[in-house]
Design goal:
Blueprint: H1 5-23, E1 27-35, E2 38-48, E3 52-64, H2 76-92, E4 102-112, E5 115-122
C-alpha cells in the first residue's frame, strides 16, 4: 500500500525534525514508539539547563507553509495519548519517573518551496488528575 501525500510529508517532516534535534544535541533513542492508545514520534535524552539529563517525548507536526499553525495542531486528545504512551514507555524501560526529569516537546516543521523551516516549542500540558 502506498503512502498518501500527507503521510509522505509527515515522514519527511519527522526526518527533518530528527536532523534538527541531533544538531541541537539531542540523543535520539527511539522513533515512532507505538502502544495501543498512541504513538510518540521521537524519544530522546537532552541536557537541559535547569534539570540536566532529561527524557524528552517529542511530537512532530509538519505543515505546508500557509496551511495553518502546526503549534496549535496538537489537541487535548492527542496530548492525553502522548502522556499515556510516555507512561507505557517508562514502565517498559524501567525508568523511574519520580527521579527522572521528563519534558514534553513539539517540533513544528513548515515547508516552503520544498525547504524546511523549523520552529520548536515546548508542549504546555497539564497532567490529568
Amino acid at each position: 500500500m502506498s503512502k498518501t501525500d500527507k503521510q509522505e510529508l509527515g515522514a519527511w517532516g519527522e526526518e527533518e525534525a530528527a536532523s534538527f534535534l541531533l544538531q541541537e544535541g539531542y540523543d535520539i533513542i527511539e522513533r515512532n514508539y507505538q502502544v495501543r492508545k498512541g504513538e510518540i514520534d521521537i524519544i530522546a535524552w537532552h541536557d537541559k539547563y535547569h534539570w540536566g539529563k532529561t527524557l524528552c517525548f517529542i511530537e512532530v507536526k509538519t505543515r505546508s507553509y500557509g496551511e495553518g499553525s502546526a503549534e496549535r495542531a496538537t489537541g487535548e486528545k492527542k496530548v492525553g495519548n502522548i502522556f499515556h504512551s510516555a507512561r507505557m514507555y517508562c514502565l517498559e524501560h524501567n525508568i523511574d519517573i519520580d527521579h527522572t526529569p521528563i519534558q514534553f516537546e513539539q517540533v513544528s516543521v513548515y515547508v516552503r518551496n520544498k525547504k524546511p523551516l523549523i520552529a520548536t516549542c515546548e508542549l504546555r500540558v497539564i497532567i490529568p488528575k
